[in-house]
Amino acid sequence: MKVFVIAGELSGDKLGGALMQGLQTRVGEVDFHGIGGPLMQAQGLSSLFPMDELSLMGIAEILPKYRHLKRRIAQTAQAVIDAKPDVLITIDSPDFCLRVARIVKEQSDVKIVHYVAPSVWAWRAGRAEKMARYVDHVLALLPFEPPLMTRAGMGCDFVGHPVVNEPVASQAEANRFRTDTGIGDAPMVLVLPGSRRGEVTRLAPIFQNCIRPILDRLPRAKFVIPAAAPVAALVQDLVQDWDMTPIVLDGREKNATAMKRAAFRAADVALAASGTVSLELAASDTPMVIAYDMNWLSRQIISRMLKTDTVTLVNLVSDTRVIPEFIGGKCDPVAIAPAVVDVFTNPDAQRAALSDTMARLGRGGEDPGLRAADAVLRVIAG
After folding, report:
1. How far does Cα 156 stand from its chain's mean position?
2. For residues 119, 123, 125 and 126, what is the CA-based torsion angle, rounded to 10 degrees?
3. What is the per-residue pLDDT for 119?
């Protein structure tokens, strides 16, 4: 069986790696082609070009790279057509993946599966109908998404989110992390400014300006930044200007994953960028505050299109609004810092929502990578 699979960022690489492993578990040897990061490459993929070329977010952020992305879109679509795979699987990154899918569908009869439903519940509801012209099937991470996709004319399976089956550090590992880093019993705040260079550059100064007000209320607090490998050097450079020196966990280190898990479990509260990291925190039962801003132009356009009062996945999946969020113009340290202290003081307000989120995403059920693989095999079988 030949499968062409495309991911454009770290979260997609994680989904792709689990799906590829699931396919190999179900059918044995699979000939993989496409674009992906280290987790997909570990499953046998030789990436057509480095995945981080596609790790862009926001309208204004994409525009300067548009010509280069257009060439990569054409190159990738032609590679799919030439490979003649049994299926093309595109993972999230719609600005790239769905353009590739459209060209492939216009020039071939390759079956196309898109992994991660577009967030039509949040903005640009018409995307699903447009996508249905060239996507045959969708793999949804969130339980309320399949009806939205089938209504638009595509098949859709809720396969669960892989975060529910990822290892979580034990309390002993969390305690050891606190001991080894010298944090001890001090209040511990995770700082998570994202995994893309653009968002880290934008959010790190905002998060930096939250530190002093937090320390005024929690003078013993320690701050830990688990820095993703692609932005680890950038994070280390940025924190040189901070009033206090946070503990930076370098994602390039051999034990980075284990250290990150231990930090997530050990933390009392997290200040995090919007995105799937909220689910990782929920898996570790770590209370959080979400804050995010974007380029001014992107903010103006997206704010006018937004259909929901929250973008935090824990709030959406649990159908609550217990996670404080500060998005766009509200991403202000004056408001964010007191919210972090309040969550530290009253963490139990979020506990039920964190647990319910994991249950609704499939914790305790079949591995999402296997569920996704089974759905892909049904599409191939027709």
Report:
1. 20
2. -110
3. 79
- As a three-state string, the secondary structure of the chain is CEEEEEECCHHHHHHHHHHHHHHHHHHCCCEEEEECCHHHHCCCCCECCCHHHHCCCCHHHHHHHHHHHHHHHHHHHHHHHHHCCCEEEEECCHHHHHHHHHHHHHHCCCEEEEECCCCCCCCCCCHHHHHCCCCCEEEECCCCCHHHHHHCCCEEEECCCHHHHCCCCCHHHHHHHHHHCCCCCCCEEEEECCCCHHHHHHHHHHHHHHHHHHHHHCCCCEEEEEECHHHHHHHHHHHHHCCCCCEEEECCCCCHHHHHHHHHHHCCEEEECCCCHHHHHHHCCCCEEEEECCCHHHHHHHHHHCCCCCCCHHHHHHCCCCCCEEEHHHCCHHHHHHHHHHHHHCCHHHHHHHHHHHHHCCCCCCCHHHHHHHHHHHHHHC
- Sequence letter at residue 362: G
| Mean per-residue pLDDT pooled into runs of 10, the chain (382 residues) | 95 93 96 96 96 65 72 96 98 92 97 92 75 96 93 95 91 98 98 93 96 97 95 96 92 95 98 93 97 75 68 93 94 97 97 96 92 98 91
Task: Give dist(CA 62, CA 324) in Å, integer.
Answer: 28
| Distance in angstroms (rounded) separating the CA atoms of residues 274 and 250 | 21
> What pTM value is reported for the model?
0.78
pLDDT of residue 95: 85
The pLDDT score that the predictor gives to residue 60 is 46
Question: Are 189 and 263 in contact, with CB atoms under 8 Å apart?
Answer: no
Partners of 272 in the β-ladder: 192, 290
| b/e 239-274 (16+ beta carbons within 10 angstroms → b) | beebeeebbbbbbeeeebeebbbbbbbbbbbbbbbb
Predicted pLDDT at 262: 98
pLDDT at 57 (0 to 100) = 46
Ramachandran class of 93: left when φ > 0, alpha when ψ lies in -120 to 50, beta otherwise: left
Nearest to 202, CA basis, from 238, 241, 174? 238
pLDDT for 361? 93
